[in-house]
Write a structure and sequence with these properties.
Blueprint lengths: L1 H20 L6 H14 L2 H13 L8 H13 L3 H11 L5 H18 L2 H8 L8 H14 L3 H14 L4 H9 L5 H10 L3 H5 L3 H24 L6 H46 L1
Length: about 280
């Protein structure tokens, strides 16, 4: 019996000692290591949860810059705009300026990509005064592009491109843009059907509309004269010609708008690339 009790006591002491030496899986360091493993393995959703648990569960003042940047990278990869904004607002004022700027760029870039001018203006009010000049130039450029204010965008990009190479591609795109006037496109089509579409870059649209409307108009006149305007055919041809004519006027106006939208989209996509490069 004594031998049994001695062996049991030794077994108990040994296991208590081993248990005391085993790392607690809920220690912050273990959680971060687990998050790093998930991140390296590509399990971004799970890694996001573990990094958030590491940063907030144990200590609300935890500002581990490596963990914060990896969490920002996850939000960047998954296009999680809300997460990126939340992370930037949470840590922007308590981390080094270099990381704060990265968090800001990540969030601002996602908001710009959503083309939400109101949200972009609201968020960029929080820009720190010690951020880089490059970023301070990028913000008003982004606003002018979202506003579709091409003259301002051209001027700002021209100034920025003289100092920073990253703005040069966008500056070249902006300087090459020639917008079309929807009003002029409409006016041209009033006098020559389809010409507003040609003005907006669609010769095919001009040719088809001109031939259809011209053919229907010719059919109206021909059948009208032939029947002394007492037959139903000139009125059918005339009605069709009028419908196509009105449709062409609307289409010419919209074609100029679509042309301009495409030009702005190309410019905006070049600004998206700047945010990508800066992050």
């Amino acid at each position: 019996m004594k031998k049994f009790l001695s062996l049991f006591f030794i077994f108990l002491i040994t296991n208590v000692f081993l248990f005391a030496q085993t790392p607690d899986p809920y220690e912050p360091e273990m959680i971060k290591a687990f998050a790093d493993d998930l991140y390296q393995s590509g399990f971004t959703d799970q890694a996001e949860s573990e990094y958030k648990r590491y940063l907030f569960t144990f200590d609300n003042t935890n500002t581990d810059t490596e963990a914060i940047f990896k969490l920002a990278t996850i939000y960047h990869q998954t296009k999680n705009m809300d997460g990126a904004i939340w992370l930037s607002e949470k840590f922007s004022s308590v981390v080094p300026v270099e990381l704060s700027e990265k968090l800001f760029i990540n969030s601002a870039g996602m908001i710009f990509y959503s083309r939400n001018l109101a949200l972009f203006n609201s968020f960029t009010k929080t820009i720190r005064p010690d951020f880089s000049k490059e970023l301070k130039l990028l913000i008003p450029i982004s606003v002018s592009v979202l506003n579709k204010d091409l003259p301002i965008a051209k001027e700002l990009l021209k100034t920025a491109a003289m100092e920073f190479q990253v703005f040069v591609p966008s500056e070249k795109i902006a300087s090459s843009i020639k917008t079309k006037s929807p009003g002029l496109a409409l006016a041209l089509s009033i006098f020559v059907p389809g010409s507003g579409k040609w003005y907006s870059g669609s010769f095919g649209g001009f040719a088809s509309d001109f031939l259809v409307i011209g053919g229907l108009t010719a059919g109206t006149v021909y059948t009208g004269i032939k029947s002394d305007w007492k037959d139903w055919r000139p009125y059918v041809f005339g009605t069709c010609a009028l419908v196509f004519y009105i449709s062409d006027l609307y289409g010419s106006y919209k074609s100029a708008e679509r042309y301009n939208e495409f030009q702005y989209r190309v410019l905006a996509e070049s600004i998206d690339k700047i945010y990508e490069e800066e992050f």
